[in-house]
Design goal:
The complex is a heterodimer of chains A (about 475) and B (about 60).
Chain A: H1 5-10, H2 13-21, H3 27-45, E1 48-51, H4 53-68, E2 80-84, H5 111-118, E3 122-127, E4 139-140, E5 144-145, H6 161-168, E6 175-179, H7 185-191, E7 194-197, E8 217-222, H8 225-235, E9 265-268, H9 270-273, H10 279-294, E10 298-301, H11 310-325, H12 327-332, H13 339-349, H14 353-373, E11 379-383, E12 396-398, E13 404-406, H15 407-411, H16 416-421, E14 425-432, E15 438-445, H17 450-463
Parallel strand pairs in A: 2-3, 2-6, 9-10, 9-11
Antiparallel strand pairs in A: 1-3, 4-5, 6-8, 7-8, 7-14, 11-15, 12-13, 14-15
Chain B: H1 9-18, H2 25-46
The chains are: A alpha/beta (about 475), B mainly alpha (about 60).
Chain lengths: ~475, ~60
């Protein structure tokens, strides 16, 4: 083997795929290196619930033979990828991070799983998460508390905390996360990686354990925007098995990544998105905006009249819908839930139908106000969350003035807008705080215009090196 | 609108009974401060200019599969 393990797992997903296609690296080498890396870091991170050691090696050997015979299944051929453990895998345990589904072995793949396999990806395992994806810390009472590779005393956020930690720690080349209220973007930000919450309806949810049907999405989590575009291309598109997926055409997301920022109009909502932040987060995101302006973008201040109700509406919908899905289990197996998730599910039972419908009306109002604003801007940029990674186990967070706030509502302060409106949002690393913890920004775009988000993110990464830094673990 | 009725054990017990959800007294006590927070947040929605806005999750009659 010409490259050592460190060198192999440090390749980006795109580089690894290219080197496989040119026969410079074998899928067997990539999988061996990834499995070694998982074995080395997982005892400290608890990022994986299940690792497919034997199956991944079998698939890798077959993928190697195919390459040698001149066959290439697709753009991800031979590249190790991992899935959040609420995404169904045929014949392999899918727990959703719960005790209730601890022994569930699906008979079918989720559509996302099937599309990754069809694109040639080698699935190396299933990633830990906040129980049933209902929470933002990934402190999982059943499968272990996931930790942040930049500092294992800090949390990885959630709910896709295992996905964020594994990608940042080079324990896979890319991962699938799911995002209802921020669960791709939040762990992407605090682990210093890229994550895409697609437009609602762009990626199939078939075979994914639901949290809140009207807000659930699945998307890629990677180290670079280019990797994100490559993985997104493999999973996007209409699925007859999921009635919520759209028939809107799927772009080639790799085209246009190098087109730059010239003329891009960036909306900023100063009265909301730049209010109530930890200073290092404020400075990093403002610095990113300055950099984007230097690259040719223009900033446009925008007011969204009713933006302040978004957390209320989000929590209302994200309480009522999960409690509906879990209604039977909550009555038959209440003690099998962790305390925090059980409490949230009970809360959802105590809301009125009118609360839920007012939240759905607010949601339509907010969508209309953003659609009006998109006549003047192409994207919005804002922080992903107002603070950097907190200590593991904290239920409260201090953002400013020493005031403790509830973690769940504080963490979703800025991710709620895309979740409610269904708009796509790309989380991109944009700095570090004085403790060396990553800061992330969101780029929010028009419906089904992920291409513009990816173009903007790629231009930012071409001019910065935040995404090239790796945690020492 | 008048001030919202604050969350109390009696209120939550009644709501849980209506939902056919068994809640032990200690669970009810745990939920009181949580629901107070939720109800306070619901008040924020009252400030939005909802007018004649129709809910986002409206029935879709296209019958497409």
């Amino acid at each position: 083997m010409s490259r050592d393990q460190h060198e192999l797992v440090s390749l980006t997903l795109t580089e690894a795929a290219r080197l496989v296609s040119t026969r410079e690296v074998s899928p067997v080498e990539l999988v061996e290196a990834t499995l070694e890396r998982i074995a080395a870091v997982n005892p400290r991170l608890a990022a994986y619930i299940t690792v497919f050691e034997q199956e991944a090696m079998q698939v890798a050997r077959a993928a190697e033979l195919m390459v040698l015979a001149g066959h290439n299944l697709g753009p991800l051929h031979g590249v190790p990828i991992a899935l959040k453990d609420n995404v169904a895998t045929r014949g392999a345990r899918t727990t959703a991070g719960s005790k209730i589904l601890a022994d569930w072995v699906p008979e079918h793949d989720a559509t996302v799983t099937a599309r990754l396999r069809a694109a040639g990806a080698i699935l190396v395992g299933k990633l830990n998460l906040h129980e049933f994806a209902w929470g933002g810390t990934s402190a999982n009472p059943h499968w272990g508390t996931v930790r942040n590779p930049w500092n294992i005393e800090r949390f990885p956020a959630g709910s896709s905390g295992g996905s964020g930690a594994a990608v940042a720690a080079r324990a896979c080349f890319g991962a699938i996360g799911t995002d209802t209220g921020g669960s791709i973007r939040l762990p992407s930000a605090v682990n210093g990686i890229v994550g895409l919450r697609p437009t609602y309806g762009r990626v199939s949810n078939h075979g994914i354990v639901p949290l809140a049907w009207s807000m659930d999405t699945a998307g890629p989590m990677t180290r670079t925007v280019e990797d994100c575009a490559l993985m997104f291309s493999a999973i996007a598109g209409h699925d007859p098995k999921d009635a919520t997926t759209a028939r809107a055409p799927v772009a080639d997301y790799m085209v246009g990544l190098g087109d730059g920022l010239a003329g891009l109009r960036i909306g900023v909502v100063p009265g909301y998105f730049f209010h109530h932040l930890q200073p290092p987060v404020h400075d990093a995101v403002r610095g990113a905006l300055d950099r984007m302006v230097a690259l040719g973008a223009q900033l446009v201040d925008v007011e969204i009249a009713d933006i302040h109700g978004n957390i209320s509406a989000q929590l209302t919908i994200e309480s009522a819908e999960p409690s509906t899905y879990h209604q039977r289990w909550l009555r038959e197996r209440p003690d099998d839930y962790g305390d925090d998730v059980r409490t949230l599910l009970e809360v959802g039972e105590l809301l009125l139908a009118t609360h839920y419908l007012q939240a759905q009306r607010y949601r339509a109002l907010l969508r209309n106000q953003f659609m009006d604003a998109f006549r003047r801007v192409d994207v919005f940029v804002c922080p992903t969350l107002p603070f950097t990674a907190t200590r593991v186990g904290e239920a409260k967070v201090v953002i400013e003035d020493g005031v403790e706030e509830d973690m769940l509502s504080a963490i979703m302060q800025f991710t709620g807008v895309p979740s409610l409106t269904g708009l796509p949002s790309l989380a991109v690393p944009c700095g570090f705080d004085p403790d060396g913890l990553p800061v992330g920004m969101q780029i929010i775009g028009r419906p089904f215009d992920e291409a513009t988000l990816l173009r903007a993110g790629a231009a930012f990464q071409a001019a910065t090196d935040f995404h090239r830094r790796a945690p020492e673990l | 609108m008048s001030a919202r009725t604050p969350a109390s054990p009696q209120l939550l017990e009644a709501a849980a009974k209506l939902a056919d959800l068994d809640l032990a007294p200690e669970r009810v006590q745990e939920l009181v401060p949580v629901m107070s927070g939720i109800y306070a947040m619901l008040d924020a929605l009252e400030q939005a200019s909802l007018g004649e806005v129709v809910p986002a999750a409206a029935f879709n009659a296209r019958w497409e599969r």
